[in-house]
Amino acid sequence: MGRAPSRRYANTAELIAAEEPDNPSFLFSERLLVNAIDTFKSGFDGLLTYAVKANPSPHILEIMHREGLTAYDVASNTEMALINQYAPGATMHYNNPIKSRREIARAYEEFGVRSFTIDHVAQLDQLAAVIPPSEDVEVTVRFKAGKALKSYDFGTKFGVMEDGAISICTLTKAMGYSTSLCFHVGSQCEDAYAYERHIAAAGRIALASGIELGRLNVGGGFPATYPSSSAPPLDVYFDTIRTAVADTFGSTKPQLIAEPGRGLVTGSTSLLLRVKHQRGEQSVYLNDGVYGSLMEAMIVEFMPPLRVWRGDRILTGESWGFTIFGPTCDSYDMLPQSFILPESIAEDDYIEFGLMGAYTQASLTPFNGFDRRDLYWVDDILV
Ligand SMILES: Cc1ncc(COP(=O)(O)O)c(C=O)c1O
Description:
Blueprint: E1 9-11, H1 12-19, E2 25-28, H2 30-43, E3 47-48, E4 50-51, H3 58-66, E5 71-74, H4 77-86, E6 91-94, H5 101-109, E7 115-118, H6 121-130, E8 138-142, H7 162-175, E9 178-182, H8 193-209, E10 215-217, H9 234-249, E11 255-258, H10 262-265, E12 269-279, E13 283-286, E14 306-310, E15 313-314, E16 319-325, E17 339-342, E18 350-353, E19 374-380
Parallel strand pairs: 1-19, 2-19, 3-11, 4-5, 5-6, 6-7, 7-8, 8-9, 9-10, 10-11, 13-16
Antiparallel strand pairs: 2-12, 12-13, 12-18, 14-15, 14-18, 16-17
The structure holds pyridoxal-5'-phosphate.
Pyridoxal-5'-phosphate binds at residues 51, 53-54, 73, 95, 184, 187, 219-222, 259-263, 358.
């Protein structure tokens, strides 16, 4: 694999001793990514795909490809090009309902995409204006069936209610497209039964619209094991989905697709940030913040595990709540939650945040000229 470095470190201490990284650094464990892929491959009863948006880094895509993932959820033409480059020959599902006609045409003609998600009847007209109806083209209708008890909900932006889904499916079938269904229970979904409720709704939609449901995409949402998470283990999710599909569809089960992002990649990467400045007894200023690798902390409520390093030693001692700021000149660059850190934390120490593989490398910005983040391969990182 071209992306693998010549030097790998056994653990974070070894990396710090050798490199003393001064730039924000992602520490990537290939072993932990392969473990996560194996967990989904052995537990999920269907086609495992990967939501590229969670982390489109070349090393992640190359390993997904090498470990046998043959299909990917892509949100844009740019992600399609990435798949062509790093997972050649893979199938792509264009599951972002928001597209332009030009993007649809490129997906179809240049990237060979044959599966498109919509959640509004106007998008069916848009699609039909570019791609003539045919059984070879799958139109997947994204519906919603209530909010999960705990997740980062996408329902205000995406998904059509059950009645609307029935009308769109009826129309899609009449036009001659192959018709299927999908949903997304929300990211970091800590309510496994949200999948059950959506699968039951899929059964009702298929029945009422008269489609033969060949495929049902249960989306992403599978949770990471943040210390703040109350989610059951992934096995509970896989069992819940299996049972709900059997109860709903009996012997005419559709093929299932899952497209996890966070659940697949979070645990494979930790984030090592350095203290640039420490002020008073409650504020630390790091070398990256909400305009970079910590952007998601502003959007999704979660608390990653963390540890503080002074050189290659873990710093302990009396600890209390600190406010964490990023390095930019914007006062918005401040994490909303308080972090418990050793009171003696000082300039040049490091904070290692665990479980940072998803929605971190994907949303970096160069704001204020802070445009450099490094990547190291480290076997044993904080999880
Ligand atoms: C269509 C679609 N599929 C899958 C995902 C991945 O979700 P998660 O990272 O929660 O697994 C997303 C996330 O935005 C999405 O929009």
